[in-house]
Amino acid sequence: MTKQYLKPLALALSVALAGTACSKQDDAGAAAPAANAPAAASTAPATAAAPAKPSFDVSELDSGINACDDFNGFVNSKWVAANPIPEDRTRWGAFDQLAENSLNTQHDIVDGADKGADAAKAGSIEQKIGLLYRSGMNEDAIEKAGVDPLKPELAKIDALKSPQDIVDFLDASFNDGNSYVFGFGSGADFQNAKVQIGYAQQDGLGLPTKDYYTDPKQADNRKAYVDYIAKTLTLAGVADADAKKQADDIMKFETQLAAASLAPVELRAPENQYHFVSVKDADKITPHFSWEKFFAAQGVTVDKGFSLSQPKFFAQFDKMLASTPVSTWQAYLRFHAIDGASPYLSKAFQDNKFDFYGKTLAGQPQQKPRWKRVLGAVNSEMGEALGQLYVAKVFKPEAKQRANELVDNVRNALKARIEKLDWMSDETKQKAIAKWNTFLPKIGYPDKWRDWSGLEVTGTNYYGNAEAASKFNYHYDIAKIGKPTDRLDWGMTPQTVNAYYNPTDNTINFPAAILQPPFFDANGDDAINYGGIGAVIGHEASHGFDDEGSQFDGEGNNKNWWTKEDRTKFDARTDKLVAQFNEYAPIKDKPDLHVNGKLTLGENIADLGGLNVAYDALQEALKKNPQEAGEKIDGYTQDQRFFLNWARVWRGSVREKQAMLYLNVDPHAPASLRAIGAPSNMEAFASAFQCKPGAKMIREGDKQVKIW
Asked: Which of 281, 297, 349, 406 could form a disulfide with 171 if both were Cys (CB 3.0 to 4.6 A apart)?
């Protein structure tokens, strides 16, 4: 059972500042509020009074390290040494610290909602969130139930006798909000982004990527995964010998699926995310799986067609329907049903899942405390509702107004840069500006909140609540199919410490939780704010023009708006950025493990473009305030403080196993490299710190990358 909380298309397309969505790499069932970018600071929410400490504490800088040789070390090494990774985390840094603050605020909210649920208005979000959280914290009831809540699902799997039975089971499971083998959800049509269509996408693997099934370096992880599968089955009552055989069969089954799956780098290409077909043509690709019947079972009307996004994968899925023994299908479905339900079952199931996905794959010593895991589930199941309560508690209108001003200033700087490009033709520039004109910034929280009146929640049945929420959210999503795209929809909750750009609606999105120090300080100087949230704004806006976003026009359509010559010039510049990041080997004692410059290209382009436009915006702001422009604060100029805060945002450390996992799956470069990657390509950095030619942080001549 894979809960369909996150839209498949959103995971494939939306590009974020720092984050990955909650996944099997997070410890069992805990929602990760931020991502592979590790933020510092304030324990106060956005509405707090001015902090007593300075907006940038220069005592944290390491004067023994030359900023021109190791800028990340200069800014962050003392902090990292003084702030070890907590035992219940795989990394710790600026984003994580800010996310922790957000979690503590949310904890207060859900705890209060639990205590007040019985007296709350019937059907209100306060009542539902309180009951949902209460059910997850009721460990006695969960322990007493054991695996019993899952038994009806397991009985359905045990009753399967034919390939058609399997198809019928899949149809019904999706309708209940549980996905197996593939994912399905709504998204904007790549060719007509004003309309939502259905997207079916590859899924179904228990290991992070296809390479984990064949790479000799992953042999230990494969063995551990098979052991995990077997133990998971035995916890649900399968005899030891049968569990071992089923585990071996499941591994072979998933290896076949993996062979037909695309790798993360391949999935970044729009042509691998969208393959529009009629229902009739889709049935030709999967003759043993009727899409017409699937859509009927979901209650979805498909008009002209949908995206069968990875045809090779679905052809293999169909082949396995016909050729794989039903008993192997049963084993596969049985395991994934238990694995998906484990966070909502008794402690033995939760601990078992954490032991593999937390300890073995990510190197996390301890599981998060119960309240954080349950809060993660609340975020997954009723995240926007919780966000409504979060915003009411911590987010003032003044913060939104100031953020909007920064957005306007940074966007204007981006426009000016596009207009001055010396490598782009006027023809393409005009179309780039046309796309710029249609950007829609969204700040803090949705203008209109979701209606939760159709979701029934009790205070006593955690698993039942998860099932109900999964079905409710899935049908909320697929009900959009065939309807106009709503650009005001949000793909992140307000309490998430992150930001993102969506190319299919051309929006840049900044949740409330990121609009606080070190990103945004209402009492900070311009340099601090432009080096923090200004660079975040520039980063998200630059995603509209990265290697992927540049393939979409201002309406959100996957359409070429470039001349051939300009695209060639763009590719030549981005190839140099790929080469730069390919050279980085970020894990100590693992010099053979390098960053994947292709996988991380979009984020690296956005960092470089975003930091440049934020710097330009700072210069424009300082022109209006010449006194501030010439003033040093704690001995540092405005230009220096701009880069200091950029590096501070990326401070942090990560456990070795998690770092290795990120290199395989994460489209973001390691945080320590993001602190130095973009500045090393900027003449403004060299000038700010008076770096001499040959310094390690300085790239000169052809080695320096300039894109936007």
From this structure: 297
